[in-house]
What does this fold into?
Amino acid sequence: MYFDPRPKVRREDLYDREEELEQLRRYVSSSPLTVITGVRRLGKTSLLLVGLRDTPHVILDTRGVNPNSRRDLLKRFESGINTFLRKNSKLRDSILRRLENIAGVQVMGTGIALQWRREKADLLSIARVLEEHGAVLAVDEVQNLRGVVGREFAELIAHIYDYTDLRVVLTGSQVGLLYDFLGVDDPSSPLYGRHFSEIKLKRFSREESLDFLRKGFAQLGMQAEDDVLELVVDKLDGIVGWLVLFGLRCSEAGEISREISEDVMREAGKLAMQELQNFIKRHAPAERRFLLTAKAVASGRRVWSEIRDYVEKAEGRSIPSSVLARILNSLVKASFLSKKAEGRNVWYEIEDPVLENALKK
It folds into this structure.
């Protein structure tokens, strides 16, 4: 069902994305490192799960990982491997026999536990076992791995890249931070200079958004008036996660209406604002300045001078250019803002129309 809010795992539940699925299958068979990028709620996890459905794979979900906790990372690694073992019973015994001889790995029945104190788990050796059994290692939202933990994990991926044939797939919705993890412009990064194949997931076009909603409602035996669907698409601008939320709320209500679209905008706005606030909390004590910068762009101040003027008036004091530059750069890297350029003209936009609407209030 298109309007199931959970990540899709079956091809028939994923709308279109045929080109991206073919890219993923091709890259996984030929490239040591594949990266899936795109702003929030475009379906990166669904693409990953559907694309790897017929391939043995371990998925690490790094959302919520404490960037200062190696234990947190190892627990995600442990969970990913145990899920893999449950789903691949034919490989389980062979894999467990190999894993029980690896430092820091304790075999417990049909699963494992990883140690992080007395004897740290040897993740590279675990990766070699996955390689031997034809598995793919996928890491969802890898940009969450920052600081010491992030560098250690980048070093692990670099070693896997250089010394094994294990295929690795990374996803990230905060695209600039993902590129930082990959060391695209940082010669000191463990992954600097290593080629990766990239799949850039885009939002649906207007026509695709309308078709997605019509087909999703048809699956539910519901039919919507075109003017309602067009209104919704105008507001949600091809971001599939918000379109799914609208379809889900209509399904629950048993009707398709403008009123539900307004409710969805309010609900989605709260979620988008919470994500922004969670991000800017990392930048204490400059949270208010970050929020004012985002509000400036949402209110139509798109160029540097207008943004600075808005923030300075709100704060009642001057802001050094270097400070504003860091704030804008941080918001762009986290994909809350996008930076556009045409010749010498440079301006900023809010990536998500739902967030833009919420910031205006």
Summary: Strands lie at 33-37, 57-61, 105-108, 111-114, 136-140, 167-172, 197-200, 337-342, 345-350. The chain has three domains: 11-200, 206-275, 280-359.
